[in-house]
Design goal:
It contains eight helices and ten strands. The protein is of the alpha/beta class.
Amino acid sequence: MKLNDLLKENKIVAFGFDAVKDLVRFDNKDSENTVIISTIAPSLLVRHGVNEYYGLELSKDTVYKTGLDIIKADIDVSKYRLHALEIYPLEKQQDFVIASRHEGTIEILKNEFPFLENAPVYERVEADDIKGKHVFGILPHHLIPECDLYTSISIKGFDYVKDNDIKGVELIERIHIAETPIMLEKID
């Protein structure tokens, strides 16, 4: 589905960077249906009680400053169902993968979780790399349904250009490791 069609038919609640939040100016204020759109990590949506949302399929190389910039790009959106796992099944406590290109994050994960010590680390992942695995790290929305479980890692206010080598106390103060793994199902 295209974002522009979603906006024409629905009121929206938006989570993400400023241009995404700006999209609420362009929704259908007369619609009786409200949907959620997001670019933030699904584990953060859990905190807001979200269990279904539309993920925006944004190009990594494009910068969007306003909601209108996103609308002009006529991007695709996919609908997802989110399941937070409060109880962690024993059979899922295996086949771990780290998805991160940030050395400090990888170091913290391996220190915090000894079972990740020998886990493969991928700077960039393909669906086959994570199928049937429990992934710790950062994945785009469209890849999360490919893994069995996903534990999101984020760094508050991270900018790869200026924070590439962030380590130590500063990293520890800014890193967020999701409390529970999630399962994400693409439904549309």
